[in-house]
Structures are given as structure tokens and as C-alpha cells.
Structure of GntR family transcriptional regulator:
Amino acid sequence: MAELDPTRAKWVQMVTVIESRISDGTYPAGSKLPGILALCAEFNVAQVTARKALADLRDRGLIRTENGIGSFVL
């Protein structure tokens, strides 16, 4: 489970961790990210928090989301 700093917004920290994983190749281009429930379990957050993190990554052009299928690294 990823440890989050209680003084910072959880979704921002999730974005930082996922972005780092994309940069270091843990999640290479074209790969599917873990699903919402898996992210919630890993980061110990609510679904709304995980969705906000994914939305930010999507808005920044790092991932794409296909409804009912998942999120993929660009």
C-alpha cells in the first residue's frame, strides 16, 4: 500500500505516484493502469478520489480512458 502524506491532498499525491510510474516505465506506453478499485485499495482512498486523480492525468494528456474498459498510458 502506498503511504500518503496526510497534509497534502490524496488525489494530488496519487497523480505524483502514477506519473512517476509512467516516467520510470512501471506503466509503459500502451499499458493498462490498475482499475479504480485496485487504486482505491493501494492508496486507501475513496473512488471519487481515484477518479479525480485519473481525470487530472487524462486532462494533462498522460492517459486515455475508455468507458467500461479502463485507463491506458499514452
Remarks:
- The longest strand covers residues 63-66.
- The chain has three helices and two strands.
- The CA atoms of residues 28 and 34 lie 13 Å apart.
- The beta strands are 63-66, 70-73.
